[in-house]
Amino acid sequence: MAGPSKKAKSDIAVTPKRKRTFIETWKTQFPWLRCVDDIMFCEVCREYPSIADHNSKLDEGVTGSKRIETLQSHESSKYHLLCIQRKEVTEKGTEPMFVALKKQAENMDDQLKPMFNTAFYVAKQKLPFRSFEGLIELQEKNGIKIPAQYRNDKGCKAFVQPMQKSRRTEFLKTSRLQDSSL
């Protein structure tokens, strides 16, 4: 059997495509959704750009046709879920356990700083790493609280190596810049 005749095709009214606009009720279904100046985007993914998928339409912002399928797809995407997870962890950062761990980390930083400075002194003065332990003991006698780990020559090496790599990288960058300007 043949398809519809030419006359039947022309009789069918051509309906214009409906304009797909932002629907306010989507905000309750997708709490991360925002629409500003007719640009629809994911607020959470914009909050964490280092994690977000930059190929996602909702990261850039949807200006044209707005569809619920786009929102559903974005909601279940791997990068969006990672952004949501990061937001939850950040918001939970005020819980007592988190505050205690943060304070402990700050205390450790305060204790490691004199060790770092001592290791820098050893390297700068071209002293043997074995002198580090004696200098740390001197720091303690002067009333500076120092943790039990990293007190030997291997600890000094652990502090000096990252400094050395950083300085080497910095030197190479500046020497390349000078070479290119010649």
Detailed description of the structure:
The chain contains nine helices and two strands. It has 182 residues and is mostly helical. The protein folds into two domains: 66 residues, no CATH class; 83 residues, no CATH class. Strands 1-2 form a two-stranded antiparallel sheet. Helix 7 crosses helix 8 and helix 7 packs across helix 9. It is elongated and about 85 Å long. InterPro entries: Znf_C17orf113. Pfam families: zf-C17orf113 (PF25431). This is C17orf113 probable zinc finger domain-containing protein. It comes from Champsocephalus esox.
Strand and helix layout:
Layout: H1 6-11, H2 26-29, E1 33-36, E2 39-42, H3 43-47, H4 57-60, H5 68-75, H6 78-91, H7 96-124, H8 131-141, H9 153-181
Antiparallel strand pairs: 1-2
Helix pairs in contact: 7-8, 7-9
Overall mean pLDDT score? 81
Content-based structural category: mainly alpha
Radius of gyration: 31 Å
What spatial form do the alpha-carbon principal axes imply?
A: elongated
Terminal-residue CA separation: 80 Å
The amount of beta strand, in percent, is under 5%
Low-confidence stretches: none
- Following the backbone from N to C, one meets helices and strands in this order, namely HHEEHHHHHHH
Strand order of the largest sheet: 1-2
Count the beta strands.
Answer: 2
The total domain count is: 2
The helix tally amounts to 9
The level of helicity is: 55-70%
Q: What about the largest sheet?
A: 2 strands, antiparallel
